[in-house]
Amino acid sequence: MFTALLVAAGLTTFTGTQPQLAASGAQVYLAFGAGDVVSVARSTDGGATFDAPVALPPAGKLALGAHRGPRIAVTRDAVLVASIAGQKGGGADGDVRLYRSTDQGRTWSAPTIVNSVPGAAREGLHGLAANAAGVVAIAWLDLRQKGTRIYATVSRDHGVTWRETLVYAAPTGVCECCHPSVAVGDDGRVAVMFRNHLEDRRDMYVIESRDGAVFAPPVKQGAGSWPLEACPMDGGGLAIDAAGTYAVWRRETTIFASTTTAGASQSGPEQLIGTGRDPVVSQIDRAPDVAWILDGGVVLRQAGKPVAALGPGRFASLLALPAHTVVAFEQQGRVSVRVVPRK
């Protein structure tokens, strides 16, 4: 049984971890995991208050923690949740399982598996995004062959049917434990950001497709490089608009941002954001809000405003709305949702 506790103005908490946010107008949806159960709570007032969470049908052992866990997106006709689960769990198996709701999250379909090779998503790391018109994209770290690859599946009918494609493969494989980030533009463009593994360097790349089937060459983000023979488990965040993509990402202990013009073969100059890890981004009218983790706490930089500390927490999710920003994060087995006004 889930209980929500309103602990302060603009702050709601639930039992669970790995929160993710999505919105359609004033309706805000929050997905999170607890044990092997994925739940979704709906807000009709922009995230100020939430209905009781709805538990989705079980699907086996859920991948959860360290950026593993459910992802959520909204189209005009459906709310969609993707998670990775298997019969054994723990990295022994795992498939991308897709849930749909056509009644604003009140009831949910049984999950369908969208990766074509059983167990290929067993690393448990994936991303999900959609636009209002019904273009939906899921990308994941894929292990169907030796070496980690990026695969994706794209729907153009609000998540009813899917088409899978190989997004990117490198000779040595991509970084094996950094989650991919996904963004879908209003025009249907699909962008995926991932951490590559080339010549012992772990740098971020963005790759785009106009149709969700054929992807252009990947574009390295920023000018610097990170020599590292390990995985930082930090995939950053990605937003998209008509002009291109806006990415936030970590190199060593520093957070950077970079923009890539649609169709460009290189990114713009890297922009210093601050010190920390696990950055996320959401933007409205091309003005990005960015949140990240610094010294065990969540910090937020709303567009045009100074950085503000939101308190202890980790693994933030972010939603930029016209009047305020919604931030969800976990701390000691609970998910908190914070509403931060823009004025």
Brief summary of the model shown:
By secondary structure, this protein is mainly beta.
List the SSEs and their pairings.
Elements: E1 5-8, E2 11-15, E3 17-24, E4 27-34, E5 37-43, E6 54-55, E7 61-62, E8 71-74, E9 79-86, E10 95-101, E11 112-113, E12 126-130, E13 136-142, E14 149-155, E15 163-168, E16 181-184, E17 190-195, E18 204-209, E19 219-220, E20 237-241, E21 244-251, E22 254-261, E23 271-275, E24 277-284, E25 287-294, E26 297-301, E27 307-312, E28 314-320, E29 324-331, E30 334-341
Antiparallel strand pairs: 1-2, 2-30, 3-4, 4-5, 5-6, 7-9, 8-9, 9-10, 10-11, 12-13, 13-14, 14-15, 16-17, 17-18, 18-19, 20-21, 21-22, 22-23, 24-25, 25-26, 26-27, 28-29, 29-30
Q: How helix-rich are the residues, as a percent range?
A: under 10%
Order of helices and strands: EEEEEEEEEEEEEEEEEEEEEEEEEEEEEE
Which spans of ≥5 residues are poorly predicted at pLDDT below 50? Answer: 1-9
CATH fold name:
Methylamine Dehydrogenase, Chain H
Number of helices: 0
Q: How many independent structural domains? A: 1
Biggest beta sheet summary: 5 strands, antiparallel
* CATH superfamily descriptor: Peptidase/esterase 'gauge' domain
- In spatial order, strands of the major sheet run 1-2-30-29-28
The CATH architecture is: 7 Propeller
Apparent shape: globular
